[in-house]
Amino acid sequence: MSPQAKPTYSLAEVEAALAQGPGERVVLLNAGSSARKVAESLVALANHQGGLVILGVNAAGQPTGLQDAEETVQLATTAALLTHPPLIAPLPQAVELNGKTLCVVEVPPGLPHVYSIKGQYLVRDGPHNRPLLPDELRRLLLNRAEAGFETQLVAGATLDDLDPERINAYAQMLGGVIGEDARSLLLSRGCLVEQQGEYFPTVAGILLFGREPQRWLRSAEITCVRYPGEQMSDDFLREDVRGVLPDQIRRAEAFVADNMRRGMRIRGLAREDTPEYPISIVREAIVNAVAHRDYSIRGDSIRLLMFSDRLEVYSPGRLPGHVTLENLVEERFSRNEALVQVLSEMGFIDRLGYGIDRIIAVCEAEGLERPRFAETAAGFKITIYGHGRDLVGAAPPANLWAHLHLNPRQEKALAFLQENRRITNRDYQALCPDTSPETLRRDFADLVDRGILLKIGEKRATYYVLK
């Protein structure tokens, strides 16, 4: 352990940890614990989000004290040297609490390595230590290594799987380089790798310039859903946004713009036209999720959920590096440096990393509730509260289905469904009396094929509902 490092916790935080009991960031051990047992807990915290190990506590979480505080401090110091690599953290400290002497070891969050003890990689899971699963260990190694998942080659992908028009458009933005110069540009940005004179796309290259990114990375998409109320329900509008990341950002932003309410807000003695959410913070939240998600996680996508009172943007992958919920605003760390650089050069993101700051600042300026940030077991979520409750004459957008590019008849059918929950062939014919039954049948078939409607029943008993 580094003798220069000083603990950052307070006595009050130690008391709070004891009151809370063992958990993801708190380990309570008795005075007779071995150096190996202490080392296991240090490894588990270091491979998670850091925390405190407190020695001198019984099974009920009550302080019992230490017989020899100096010996216990030395044991904890030895325990840190048993880990591989040795744990660099503040020195263990003897702490007096209610007449009892305890030993407290602090493990900082966001350490730069993956730690083990005798070849075993542990992680904190609730109040217990457990071995890291193979996929978890792989992700942790990638997140804490110099080269992340985004710079890995995509098995089977070649230069032909990149769109030259997108590459040229990007190169033109940076001064008009073409041909070999454009290839060198992608090499310098981590989008290509050269092997024995041949060039192959990386994960970043496929995500930014691929012809069909989801062919290689199925979960690299944004699931956009709008619910009419404050909770999830069977009544919703959904769009799965795929393609390259720049297109995903634009389409997800359009989904919110098309589906949020607009009205008037009274400020002082004046009324002003106001959207439910300032579009700038919508863009920041989407870009933040796209730029910083963990693309090595399979089976989960970015989720953008609109409710009547809030907007939630969930991104797979917990906060990267040394970033925690406590230092989220002040600290900067990019999981995907290549993606961030290219998206910045395309005008989507500020590489200085002030997106979260801007979201908070705009919410404060607009008089909105402070956004909430939360980590889940495997991801990160931003919740933004809009102007919905304060809008005068608020109503759904005039063209609720604009982003789906439907024909006017189909928009009529979906508007009917919003009011009546189901629609039949007879209902549709009444809505469009001058249109042939065959054309209406094709309209329905198109809406079913696109996953917007669900067909129920057969022949004359057939009706359709929103899927």
Key terms:
single chain; 467 residues; alpha+beta; Methyltransferase, Cobalt-precorrin-4 Transmethylase, Domain 2; Heat Shock Protein 90; 4 domains; 6-stranded mixed β-sheet; 4-stranded mixed β-sheet; 15 helices; 34% helix; disordered N terminus
The strand line-up of the biggest sheet is: 10-9-13-14-16-15
Indicate how many domains the architecture comprises: 4
Total beta strand runs:
19
Looking at the overall shape, the CATH architecture of the largest domain is 2-Layer Sandwich
Tally of individual helices: 15
- The percent range for strand residues is 15-25%
Nearest-integer average pLDDT? 85
Shape: globular
The helix-and-strand class reads alpha+beta
Low-confidence stretches: 1-5
Query: Which fold name fills CATH's third level, the topology of the largest domain?
Result: Heat Shock Protein 90
Helix content: 25-40%
- Main sheet summary: 6 strands, mixed
**Measured on Cα atoms, how large is the radius of gyration?**
27 Å
